[in-house]
Amino acid sequence: xxxxxxxxxxxxxxxxxxxxxxxxxxxxxxxxxxxxxxxxxxxxxxxxxxxxxxxxxxxxxxxxxxxxxxxxxxxxxxxxxxxxxxxxxxxxxxxxxxxxxxxxxxxxxxxxxxxxxxxxxxxxxxxxxxxxxxxxxxxxxxxxxxxxxxxxxxxxxxxxxxxxxxxxxxxxxxxxxxxxxxxxxxxxxxxxxxxxxxxxxxxxxxxxxxxxxxxxxxxxxxxxxxxxxxxxxxxxxxxxxxxxxxxxxxxxxxxxxxxxxxxxxxxxxxxxxxxxxxxxxxxxxxxxxxxxxxxxxxxxxxxxxxxxxxxxxxxxxxxxxxxxxxxxx
Length: 329
Ligand code: ATP
Ligand code: FE2
Known about the structure:
The protein contains ten helices and twelve strands. It is an alpha/beta fold. It folds into two domains: 2-127 and 297-328, ATPase, nucleotide binding domain (Nucleotidyltransferase, domain 5, 2-Layer Sandwich); 138-293, Nucleotidyltransferase, domain 5, CATH 3.30.420.40. The strands form three sheets. A five-stranded mixed beta sheet has the order 3-2-1-4-5, sandwiched between helices. It has a five-stranded mixed beta sheet with strand order 8-7-6-11-12, with helices on both faces. A two-stranded antiparallel sheet has the order 9-10. Helix 2 (96-113) links the parallel strand 4 (86-92) and strand 5 (116-121). Helix 4 (170-181) runs parallel beside helix 6, helix 5 crosses helix 7 (231-257) and helix 7 packs parallel to helix 8 (272-284). The two termini are 23 Å apart. Bound molecules: adenosine-5'-triphosphate and fe (ii) ion. Adenosine-5'-triphosphate is lined by residues 9-10, 122, 126, 145-148, 169, 171-172, 174-175, 186-189, 192, 266-268, 270-271, 298-299.
């Protein structure tokens, strides 16, 4: 099957095209199963120099780039509309008006081309594409993006959230800190760069059971910025503190669920220092650490296409659901 997946929950408008018969493991082998192959994954990301995301601007951005992104993806995949079996789209969670903007675009394409729509959960798509890419069976997931910071396991076909942020996601926290430091949006990559030259200063370390909290750390950072703290030191210390908090809780979740595999997904997973710390933690407990390549880590359409393929029997045109949680999938 050829699936065209469309992402439009927040800053990114993306079209990914996946062939479900991409890579075949020979039938009869104990690992016989079919894996997807990404034929194209084109996206445009809204960014701003000094402020965060303004929904009206994001919608205007997505409407402006949609047709172009689609044409590029079809060209890159060398696929015509006729060959596309159905359209998968991200139905939520996300920014409500941006979700509707994306939904209207896919609805138009579906009716013009006579294709079926399959709405999928954006968070589940991050997990599934990471699992597909690494050919994993049932890992412990650490999902760290803008909005989400969750430790997840799958039990009997349902996702269970073992721990999560009690307030804001780590990515959003880094972006908010970036605003205070005048780094623009998204700030994560810039904070990573600045951190390379920083020294450690103590910040609050907030772990409650398997949950974490980042808003108190942000408040402390803002106070330090007002006092004129060195940017590099602050970036370094924020990374060390927050990544250590997550390494601690995820290690506990792995021990609790007897997991020997950890899969990191979501945009913050692009951070090299974060991966290094998780890799070290896994090595120490004889477990294996997996991540996804940069182009599949953040938001994009290929993950939506693959999740659509997996949910093709159970989902359909479900409009949008801005509050759709991973454990409701
Ligand atoms: P969600 O998946 O929860 O809907 P999202 O769509 O905003 O959230 P992603 O695209 O997965 O999230 O990730 C975006 C986030 O990743 C931003 O907050 C950004 O600052 C952060 N990020 C990107 N690159 C890096 C990096 N190198 N280091 C730290 N954070 C990063
Ligand atoms: Fe995302």
